[in-house]
Specification:
By secondary structure, the protein is α+β, with helices and mostly antiparallel strands. It has 3 helices and 6 strands, in the order H-E-E-E-H-E-E-E-H. The chain has a 6-stranded mixed beta sheet. The model is unreliable at about 120-128 (pLDDT under 50).
Length: about 130
């Protein structure tokens, strides 16, 4: 079954986080595909465009693997090919002003340490 191109289905939003030089980025529209919305917090303003591109790629990956033999789940850590780093998906804690958060699944995308430490950390977390 062919999956839709995520960039044709979702919108991305970025907003400053208080008085910091950081932003909050979130998707809107993944829920319509039966997928969790994604968000990144504390993204340096200078990296917002790169982080948004990563969010689209991760959304597509989640969509492509849904219903297959290895779907991505909350709590999972994946390696970013070609880099000694990865990302972890975890259920996001709602912001105080986010009234719909308890009705719509939202996963926070978090970076994990470089230098190969991400794999050991992910395995240790999954076996606690």
């Amino acid at each position: 079954m062919k999956r839709p191109r995520i960039e044709d289905v979702i919108d991305l939003y970025a907003a400053p986080e208080g008085d910091t030089e950081k932003a909050w980025i979130s998707t809107d529209g993944m829920e319509a595909l039966g997928l969790p919305e994604l968000e990144m917090r504390e993204v340096p303003i200078i990296l917002v465009e790169e982080a948004a591109a990563l969010m689209v790629a991760l959304g597509q990956l989640i969509s492509n693997r849904r219903g297959g033999r290895s779907p991505i789940c909350a709590g999972e850590t994946i390696r970013i090919e070609g880099m000694d780093a990865g990302v972890r998906f975890q259920e996001a804690e709602p912001f105080e002003s986010d009234r719909d958060h308890d009705q719509i699944p939202v996963w926070e995308v978090r970076g994990v340490p470089p230098d190969g430490a991400w794999l050991k950390e992910a395995v240790d977390d999954d076996h606690r």
